[in-house]
Amino acid sequence: MADEDKPETTHFGFRTVPKDEKAVMVADVFHSVAAKYDLMNDLMSFGIHRLWKRFAIHCSGVRRGQTVLDLAGGTGDLTAKFSRLVGEEGEVVLADINDSMLKVGREKLRNKGIIGNVSYVQANAESLPFPDDTFDCITISFGLRNVTEKEQALRSMYRVLKPGGRLLILEFSTPLFKPLNKAYDLYSFHVLPRIGEMVARDAGSYRYLAESIRMHPDQETLKAMMLDAGFDSAEYFNMTGGIVALHRGYKF
Amino acid sequence: MLMLLVTATLEIALKRLLYQDQFMKTARQRLKGKTLRFELAELDGPVILVFGESQADVLTSWDDPADCTVRTHFSAIPALHRRQQLPALIKQGDLEVDGDIQVVQQFVALLDMAELDLAELLSPYLGDVLAEGLTQRLSAHADKIKRRWTDRQTQLGQAVTEEWRLSPSALELAWFSEEVDSLDKDEGALVSRLEKMEISR
Predict the structure, then answer these.
(1) Residue A1 pLDDT > 50, yes or no?
(2) Which of A16, A158, B139, B196 has its CA 20 to 30 A from that of A168?
(3) Spatial distance between the Cα atoms of A67 and A134, rounded to a whole number of angstroms
(4) What is the pLDDT, as a whole number, of residue A246?
């Protein structure tokens, strides 16, 4: 009886929190960092995140006239590129659960003149508000680790993908080399929060970033999760020694 | 990863060169929505330019057929920024074009219009005065290096021909060439005389 009353828990970084609270806590993190998100990405990754995203686009196989969902699209880096690639006859949906990120993304893209084939949707990855078989390609870039129910989110993505469509998950992962691991820990837990404090005035959010990366499933586990959700030919590509991995799966 | 870095750099360079000036807008509009695929002999994969309203995206894979495919090699690339050299490159076989040739012609025309001004590129970061000063200094240094290189070439040429006599001088070569020409003419005259004699017999 006591167990039934106990709320279900999940992790928020290294902390264990009730499942229904995680979304609010993640939302607080992103409300806090939204304004400095792009600058911080450049500082934290020394600009390499642009190459990781470029590789994701390279692997997406997106063509003219296709429909793309950029899930947890944040400030719209991938959306901008996809918008040009699909052309006027295609469509890109930038979706994010966080309205602050969505607003920053929309303003940035409109200021760049990217309009016409981009729409903005505030949506939870776990229950996507789109009909079945809608998208040719779905990307989720540095967003999956913040989702509470990852399996449910993967199933939801599978549902809205068209047959023949592909899902690309760009996410921090587990470094392959032990010496790199130690340096990476030192950087993540000591340097990152300080940069966050100096630039975004928020060390806590960047501490969460480092912790959430460690709690995220490794390459093989995420691949198995994709296969469980129904995706076919799931594979992954390690980048920067496994610090980041791109997972790709198809719906046939 | 290296190829990604190359395409990213190329994309930034093309944006700076081709998508900043208003006067090039009409030329850019002609390319909007077109794809130009380069297949360089030295590279394993293609480089594809997808022209848009605000920039050209540089990709290493593109599943749709390209509007124009150009097969060439690295050494021919620098010549591409001069519009008048394009027919010569095609004639010499340095450039093989498949599909709509107008796409590559318009791209070359756009490159021809582009002006690379280092001071203009640096001024947002350094300020006008510093950027101009730095550019002038760099330009002066480049001129100096170029002059020294030419001087060294001349000195080495003179040493090889005049001092060490490893190779004939330019004057000797010209004289030799004249001698060969004269011999060639004499031979021609002799042949025609012999032919005449044979006919008259």
Answers:
(1) no
(2) A16
(3) 8
(4) 94
